[in-house]
Amino acid sequence: MTAAAVVPFGARLAAAMDDHGPLCVGIDPHASLLRAWGLPDDVTGLREFSLRVVDALGGRVAAFKPQAAFFERHGSRGVAVLEEVIAAARAAGPGAGTLTIVDAKRGDIGSTMSAYAEAFLADGSPLAGDALTVSPYLGFGSLDPAVELAAATGRGLFVLCLTSNKEGFEVQHARTSVSPGADGGAGGTDGSPRGATVAALMAARAAVLNAGAEPLGSVGLVVGATIGDAVAATGTDLVAVNGPLLAPGVGAQGAGERELATTFGAARRAVLASSSRAVLAAGPDPDALVAAAAAVAGEARAALR
Predict the structure, then answer these.
(1) Distance in angstroms (rounded) separating the CA atoms of residues 152 and 95
(2) Which end of the chain has fewer CB atoms within 10 angstroms, the N or the C?
(3) Active-site positions?
(4) Distance between CA atoms of 127 and 79, rounded to whole angstroms?
(5) Interval 266-295: pLDDT, tens
(6) Is 119 exposed, middle or buried (0-12, 13-18, 19+ CB in 10 A)?
(7) What is the dihedral of CA 263, 266, 269, 270, to 10 degrees?
């Protein structure tokens, strides 16, 4: 994949959402799901489960989101299965296959972040999908190696912003001693409180990176679908982000039409609803997986219209 040969991730994702609906299916091989499918909780079961999902839904949904932790728990052989899943998704469906967002939530500083970027975003790396989730909590600037490499290779990033875990507010709702400047940078050089929340600051930085992109930029945010009024409470401007909003929590975790509309408001057309259990629980029958994914995608499309 090279910058000259590929359409930026944001544009490719927008087209996939138009074609298949705003649904990303998480590939989360929980031990309980493997058992429910009649599979062993080992590398053999991991591989069969994951590839069955790709085989059934490739070319039918906008994206897959394999959760790296469930592969890493099986050691090097599990990571090899993740590589196989990424390759299979790339071959599944017409053209360039089905988009893959690797949910690894990497975040570090300096050469370590550069190494993570090379692992998950560099051309030729077997772990490189189409996008990567990243954590900005060592400072948004710590993500620069990932931002730069993603832009150079036409890939995307999803930056954690407003998550649904109960501890998230301790950081994301905290008010910083700076505020986003007009260029998305930090204001308040005297250190005086300006009242910006961390979540609002992260959204402002993403907005700068996406400025002028059509139809969507390639630096998105992770915003939980079940966070209620947190967007308004933190003063986070999701419309200005001009990038995709990955929304975990659709379906089994409780977010339906009302929750999606309430949380995202005028930004809902940029939302990529993520669902795993609501779809995967229908397996292992491939027709049942297809039906479940179509139902969740239809509900998300109606809610986000």
Answers:
(1) 21
(2) C
(3) 105
(4) 9
(5) 999 999 999 999 899 999 999 999 999 999
(6) middle
(7) -70
